[in-house]
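Translate structure to sequence.
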């Protein structure tokens, strides 16, 4: 059976499971209610999806209509998405963290007709803007007791609770059953499945048009590359389903393969949920892995003594064992016994905190610092890196399970082409595919371009912007700089991020920032230096490290002044800045810095929902303080 041809729409992926993989009574979704994890079967999921389809058809929703989501990951998200997808509706998911004016823009640009709302806080956001959205016909709170959160303002849109919607849909379902089945069959792989709005680091949001084929081809190609995924996996989902990475790497993969999805309660409860649910696979972002790494190292080495010596010995043993295994050699009996002892004394304790059953973690959304990837590899926890953009559905490359090259994002997935192009001359240095892979291949550096099934249909209502990124030969220009190393794709930076100092030297901020982020004292860092004589930075310290070192209370972090001027704290950060600067070229080193009291945030408009810095916003917002960095006596070498 050719799965990628037969099951080529989002609703057909899930129908394939109950047709060919599992009985409909098997558990598909898990979520926590009170102190218990509730299991939801495939049958319950599909029955709820059918009831939603029935309600939407009664509303007059038809193929191509856009329906909105502003909700945390939950079973309701899956039910509603499946319900609208099988009648040809288009999913418009909105990041819950966006400001009201941004949400209003998206709802109007996409002409959203309904919106599923996850919490009282989000409902209040929607109520403030609802009457400014003429296309909005229904607001659907996904929680009970929403009525007490309504004010007396008149609403142009109707409002109905999710449970009431299901009840209404079930009543009319018998009369719509044949129509729903016909609609599902009428959905083509070339039809629009989702609009995912991405603002990037500049400009107003753009709706990325992704078809059913974009999603399903991406899933089948990814599964061909990561063959270790089986039908009994349990994924723990915590990254937002409003982001294309989690939607593809967890939701759609599980629909295609028949895996279970457990929804984490929150980021704060993620560690607890991991220990409870014991996942076998989890998608994550590099920052989470960096925090686990920093916490493990700090906990083991802070007090010094025997505990620190055992930890450092175990990690060094794991490193030696990993490198020999990755070279395809036999580690030998003595080293293997040492590795078992290291696992018993150190590694098993870290693994227990993840539930003890992880086969691998899938890292995406940003570059994973090489030292962090190697650290997990030393512990025997496999981290596979992936790369892509919203515009590429998203996966373009992903690490093969048995062939890891740290610092790269893996091999090109099947049935697409990836090129490296000189951004100035437009000369294409090389075009690589899954089939041309060679473990010794190296290429020059340039812009990464891609052509094939993963490339979006275009930007919604923005043909000019579409033409700027997809050329006449079908190449999508990612705006990322990279190269091929040992046959794998390696990301260097974003074109827009490149800093050119006053001497004409090109500086890629991401690898430089990642060098300084090795410090357990540093939480975030933003490099400055375009058209300047030297590099400076705004540094956000690790709150935990700062509190532990200086005994600070919450009041310290709530002070109105944006930057920390305390000389003792500045010198404490400067120690690590000086040490880590030795790993960089002189023109890349930080010569002066400011310490920001609190992190850059989505709410302040300083970073995107995928945690990329909005360079122009930050430089404008802190222009006065940045200029001072070039007027003060420098604190570097």
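Result:
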């Amino acid at each position: 059976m050719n799965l990628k041809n037969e099951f080529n729409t989002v609703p057909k992926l899930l129908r394939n499971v109950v047709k060919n993989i599992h009985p409909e009574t098997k558990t598909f979704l898990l979520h926590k209610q009170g102190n218990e994890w509730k299991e939801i079967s495939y049958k319950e999921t599909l029955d709820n999806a059918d009831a939603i389809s029935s309600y939407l058809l009664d509303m007059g929703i038809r193929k191509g209509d856009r329906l909105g989501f502003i909700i945390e990951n939950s079973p309701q998200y899956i039910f509603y998405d499946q319900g609208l997808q099988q009648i040809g509706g288009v999913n418009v998911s909105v990041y819950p963290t966006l400001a009201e004016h941004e949400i209003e823009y998206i709802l109007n640009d996409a002409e959203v007709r309904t919106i599923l709302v996850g919490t009282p806080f989000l409902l209040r956001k929607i109520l403030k803007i609802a009457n400014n959205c003429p296309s909005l016909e229904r607001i659907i709170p996904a929680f009970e007791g929403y009525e007490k959160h309504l004010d007396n303002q008149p609403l142009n849109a109707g409002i109905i609770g999710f449970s009431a919607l299901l009840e209404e849909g079930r009543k009319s379902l018998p009369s719509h059953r044949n129509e729903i089945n016909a609609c599902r069959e009428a959905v083509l792989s070339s039809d629009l499945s989702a609009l995912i709005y991405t603002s990037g680091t500049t400009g107003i949001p753009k709706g990325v048009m992704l078809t059913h084929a974009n999603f399903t081809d991406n899933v089948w190609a990814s599964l061909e590359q990561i063959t270790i995924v089986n039908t009994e996996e349990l994924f723990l989902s915590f990254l937002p389903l409003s982001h294309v990475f989690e939607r593809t790497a967890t939701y759609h993969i599980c629909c295609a393969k028949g895996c279970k999805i457990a929804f984490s309660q929150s980021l704060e409860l993620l560690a607890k949920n991991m220990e409870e649910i014991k996942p076998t696979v989890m998608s994550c972002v590099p920052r989470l892995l960096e925090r686990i790494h920093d916490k493990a190292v700090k906990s083991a080495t802070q007090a010094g003594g025997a505990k620190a010596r055992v930890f450092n010995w175990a990690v060094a043993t794991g490193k030696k064992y990993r490198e020999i295994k990755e070279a395809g050699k036999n580690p030998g009996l003595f080293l293997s016994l040492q590795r078992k002892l290291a696992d018993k004394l150190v590694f098993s304790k870290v693994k227990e905190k993840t539930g003890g059953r992880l086969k691998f973690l899938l890292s995406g959304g940003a570059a994973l610092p090489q030292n962090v990837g190697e650290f997990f590899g030393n512990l025997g926890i496999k981290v596979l890196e992936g790369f892509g953009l919203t515009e590429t559905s998203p996966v373009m490359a992903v690490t093969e399970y048995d062939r890891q090259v740290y610092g790269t994002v893996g091999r090109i997935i099947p049935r697409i082409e990836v090129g490296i192009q000189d951004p100035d001359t437009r000369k294409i240095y090389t075009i690589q595919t899954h089939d041309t892979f060679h473990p010794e291949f190296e290429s020059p550096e340039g812009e990464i371009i891609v052509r094939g099934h993963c490339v979006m249909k275009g930007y919604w209502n923005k043909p000019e912007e579409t033409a700027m990124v997809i050329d006449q030969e079908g190449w999508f220009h990612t705006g990322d700089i990279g190269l091929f190393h040992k046959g794998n794709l390696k990301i260097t930076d974003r074109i827009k991020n490149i800093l050119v100092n006053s001497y004409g030297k090109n500086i890629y901020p991401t690898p430089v920032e990642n060098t300084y982020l090795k410090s357990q004292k540093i939480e975030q860092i933003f490099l400055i230096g375009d058209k300047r004589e030297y590099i400076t930075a705004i540094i956000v310290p690790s709150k935990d490290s700062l509190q532990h070192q200086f005994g600070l209370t919450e009041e310290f972090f709530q002070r109105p002044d944006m930057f920390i001027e305390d000389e003792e704290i500045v010198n404490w950060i400067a120690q690590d800045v000086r040490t880590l600067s030795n790993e960089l070229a002189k023109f890349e080193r930080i010569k002066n810095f400011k310490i920001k009291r609190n992190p850059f945030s989505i709410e302040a408009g300083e970073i995107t929902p995928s945690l990329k810095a909005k360079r122009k916003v930050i430089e404008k917002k802190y222009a006065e303080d940045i200029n001072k960095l070039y007027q003060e006596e420098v604190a570097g070498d």
